[in-house]
Amino acid sequence: MKIAYILNTYPQPSHSFIRREIRALERQGFEIDRIAMRAADVPLIDAGDREEAARTHYVLRAGALRLLRDLAYMAWRAPRRMGAACALARRCGARSEVGRLRHMIYLAEAAHVARRCAATGALHAHAHFGTNAAAVAMLSHVMGGPRYSFTVHGPEEFDAPRSLSLAEKMTRAAFTVAISSYGRAQLSRLVPHDLWARIRIVHCGIEPELFAAPAPIPGGPPHLVAIGRFVEQKGQMMLPGALRRALREAPDLHLTLIGDGPLRGALEADIAVAGIGGHVTLAGWQDEAGIRAALARAHALVMPSFAEGLPMVVMEAMAAARPVLATHIAGTPELVQDGVTGWLVPAGDEAALAEAMVRVAKTPQGDLEEMGAAGRTRVLARHDADREAAKLADLFREALHRPRTQPPGPGNRTASDTAP
Q1: What single DSSP character describes residue 49?
Q2: Of 31, 255, 401, 417, which shows the fewest CB atoms inside 10 Å?
């Protein structure tokens, strides 16, 4: 059974969960055709990401002429379908922040995707994120490509659901995946109650074998690690001020930041102004092995996010038997239990974050190990990549065997739906 995975930029250092999902599906016998609009514009440090890049078909590399030819071909094969797709692209573009012209580009990309799915025998398309990848999957289906589904992660989709035509994408999809109960609740606000059953929860997964023998909590001075792209929503700009406060009561506390991004310069400046450079290590991006090593050296993970879906690094830290200090937002409390597997603080509250950092620093090693063990048990029960991929596989099979609801129009020269 062949599934087309439709993505915007793939692979990316922060999207290793997609790679894990794809490979888990392949272990279950699915054949996955990776289709991305573009390649990453940052170096791929992880060998797994480089392997994925070599296996990915990049739509925009085909060139404008090829995309226009594909658009013309699909219009000739199914003119009514193409007319409907054009009208839909214009309608979505009118309400979108990126405009109609960008949606005409999505239409050409969708034509290319539809032709590739027909050529490779892909029976279903699945997109990650409710942004342009889901738009391409939807338009491809309307013009005659396979049925589609998509996974919504947040927070971007929840910030601008109307601009993204999220309700339209959900209504036309075979099903929509949320990665948490919180995410499902937000999606349920956008569509009528009779469509709620088509919003399903499939967690992002970890590979337990990579965390088979977690290192014990180290001795020595307390050490926190923060992992993520340096952008506003991740909240790393809270850390210099919070660490400066925490050092008053925990003067040997150290913080390692793993990642990079547009806020790196501002973060470095705030660290310098706070005078805490000797207590902070900026480690840049690390591959998966490097992240596991950083977690092994740390006493806990700190995640000061303002907006999230359900962070992968929280799952990885818990699998590595490390307590987690995180903000009480979105899906995070579904995994992090305050006082049991870590600590939860209000987002944006520097004083509360600093106080919690001090609590981590003063927690006895044995208590940290007990919290880490509880977190490990919880995450392995809820986020095993193979178990979660099996849920997704069942949804694909269910969609593929669902009767057609949109028969081909009389103006089309071929069948309008490739699903059996």
Answers
A1: H
A2: 401
